[in-house]
Amino acid sequence: MIQCKTSKEIGGMGHSKKRKEDARFIQGKGNYVDDVKLPGMLHMDIVRSPYAYAKIKNIDASKALEIPGVIAVVTGKDLEQYNLHWMPTLMSDTQMVLPTDTVMYQAQEVCAVIATDRYAARDGKEAVRVDYEPMKPVMDPFKALDEEAPVLRSDKEGKEDNHIWHWEVGDKEKTDDVFENADITVSQQMHIPRIHVASIETCGCVAAYNKVENHLTMYMTTQAPHAIRTVIALVAGHVGLTEEKIRVISPDIGGGFGGKVPVYPGYVIAIAVSFLTGAPVKWVEDRSENLQADSFARDYHITAEMAGTKDGKIQATRFKVLADHGYTDASANPSKFPTGLFSIGTGSYDYGAAYMEADAVYTNKPPGGVAYRCSFRVTEAVHAIERLTDVFAREVGKDPAQLRMDNFIKKEQFPWPSPTGWLYDSGDYHAGLQKAMDAVGYDELREEQLRLRAEGKFMGIGISTFTEVVGAGPSKDFDILGVKMFDSAEIRVHPTGKAIARFGTKSQGQGHETTYAQIVAEELGIPMEHIQIEEGDTDTAPYGLGTYASRSTPTAGAAAAMAARKLRDKAKKIAAYLLEVSEQDLEWEPGKFFVKGAPEKSKTIQEIVFASYTNHPPGMEAGFEATHYYDPPNLTFPSGAYICVVDIDPETCAIKIRRFVAIDDCGNIINPMIVQGQVHGGLTQGLAPAMFEELIYDEAGNILNGTFMDYLVPTAVESPNWETGHTVTPAPHHPIGAKGVGESPTVGAPPAIVNAIVDAVSHLGIKHLEIPVTPYKLYKELKAVGYFDEE
Amino acid sequence: MNTKINKQFDIEQPIATVWASLANPEEIVTCVPGAAITEKVDDRNYKGEVVTKFGPIKAAYAGDIEIVELDESNYKMTLKGRGLDSKGKGSADMIMNGVLTEQDGKTHVDFTMDITIIGMLAQFGSRLINDVSDQLLNQFVDNFRNKLAGNEPTEGEADNSLNAGKLAGTVVKSMLGGMFKGGK
After folding, report:
1. Taking a C-beta distance cutoff of 8 angstroms, is the pair A718, A692 a contact?
2. Would you please indicate which residues of A are annotated as catalytic (active-site) residues?
3. How many angstroms separate the CA atoms of A535 and A688, rounded?
4. Angstroms from A306 CA to nearest CA on chain B
5. pLDDT-flagged residues of chain B (< 50)
6. Which of A312, A377, A591, A723 could form a disulfide bond with A396, CB atoms 3.0-4.6 angstroms apart?
7. Residue to test with chain B: of A702, A704, A708, most B Cβ within 10 A
8. What CATH number should be reported for the domain holding residue B34?
9. pLDDT in the model for residue B181
10. How many CB atoms lie within 10 A of CB A91?
11. Domain total for chain B?
């Protein structure tokens, strides 16, 4: 079990402390953007396009303006006067705030209705009449590259096709050579479908511009408040709004999952309207707007290939990706990584040749490409390698668990350089898989499977042994719009020994108010109950790049430890002064310094802090505060071994998950209960794309499941009993040895589930199933292989 | 979204009678639930509107109907319709091919509709469209039979409103009863 260095009262790392923030959440006392109500606040609603691709011939707002309470209808032409009709995306592409002449996807913003209350705004939206001239949309990313496909981004001078960028990594020549000479090669085409984060709270803001002060306060559903402040300053600088005059407040957030990283047009329109009217403007999306227009995730078409020996040694992999970005590249990746960290897709296996390439295309779909609970395209990569590994195992006739054991990077090989350029920090993949196999009873299950097959029953066992790459990131490689991806912590300890700590990150449900307090408690010995955590206000928090991609613990968590250590160093000096001994004679135990060999001579941290305000040593600065900006030397590489067992009804094709064992290794654990909660939620969000979720578009550009009626988000009813456990391999370069866990389960679960389903029907000749694997899809595959003919 | 609907039925009337009724848009529209012709542009072109409800979505389309083919000798017709949602929430296109054949003094009607729907209705109602369309067509067939049999409603108007009783048991609730007038 986890060893705790601190007492339960101090509540440092390893203690299952209840979440401090839950007191307000479970009592309905959270404070979300929609709870913000300001005097004289106007309300905004947005008219959206029914067409995926159309010219706007006319916008007639006259009927809307007749409605009592409606005060304005803002169009792209209005914004054009201030050069605010286009905005940059995080990937240096451009995105319309409001269109002046053409709409590029169904549900795109067309114009905004401003009213004195929300109902009038909605009525106004219904009353706006827009004349469109529909055009035939480009929906298929493969066809988007055809010669005859219309050039969607004709706004870009000289653009002659729908290709956005090409990316590649690895050694092509060496990899091709291995493939040419290998005993066995396998290839699998797969689609990681377009899905949506579908957070319970939709996106919204209250933009409050004060004309007298020339000051903007922006309450906003954002995972990265500081980055947003800088973006607003860059976009709105030309109208006189400079960064010191902008305050971004991200209050409580009801789930982000990457979907609250981008800047959506609604935010910008609200700012523009507030700037022009001088009144606060609230905009909050409804559910369907959120699902249909906000950034999607995934949508990678992958051809994955593996080469190896006939006894099952993996020698090389080759991935080719077609990325459907919608009408603009509005991904939320670090600037230098157009495919995010997809290159982690060589997996947990020891081989030296890999080559990956990707091309991105424009289509008439919503923009996006957010890192949905995954560190920038890691989910796509892990699905590809883990599905492919099973295809390879089947081809060489080896048990997928054994094949993985035979190919894992060994614990003593770390730090291990991957063929795509990563340096895996640490791991013990054999121990993780063995623990999962023991927990699930792997060998017995394989025997049972044979028995059941003889009876005509379908049961499958699926494995996923993944390596993640999180904690972006080291400044030499990682930036967003040029700002390096460090993160920050500032600790202020008050005279009575109680503290407030502020961070550049922003919790959306992760439990930072608890875990950060535990990190500070671990380092300073101040009880975590007495450490107040604040995030999300750019006027008070130190600059940071925000919370996504499992980066909070690896970056801001490390910053907290480092800042606390600065304070501990100061505490030691003060203790030496108070005890009249030299620093070398002092020893630390959580909560106090004592004299070596004379433990009764000691000073508690509270006494030391008090002295720092009342009796500080001559020549020393008074007070007890420290700030640290942590620039990680490497990313962290959490791993996991998941095993899923499914039973499938041979007649209805209903798929039931009988067991799901998840063994995670996220390094040192700060709060086991929060880790377990994170894993439960993440597994459910991994089950979602495996069996339920997909945003479906038809050829005419309609989204066919734009409501929760049709877009199937799994609930507790659909979720199996998740069995969790862990191995602990600390991150060697991280101050507290932690790696981050929020996203591992989302990343690792889908291939485990699909591998289990394929395994259940593999004896009938089925080698692959595309996600989401629904009973109907499985039925069609079984029918295609003639299964129902024999019945 | 695209959907194709085929409907075949027999009517106990001579083919010439059935054709006369079917080939006259102003007459046939009185049998179509929720539909009305608002203007006759010329012999081949009409303006009309359709109001219907798919689950939670009420859709009102106003648009043009064109008689593309009217082949009396072979009893074949092709209609093209294009409607815009009255609230700007999308559009619907339809091509209808109808053929009549004589069978033992009865008339066999075979028609196929290709419908393309764009916008709100496609987003929200896609699962319902086939079911609802089928219900509407059954109602149309009943109305049409009644009309040819001379069973005009007493008020002198064809009852071409959606019949809630017929739709009960499906996922759809009708709210259109009595709202529509037949074309005059």
Report:
1. yes
2. 223, 373-374, 743
3. 30
4. 38
5. 153-184
6. A312
7. A702
8. 3.30.530.20
9. 33
10. 25
11. 1
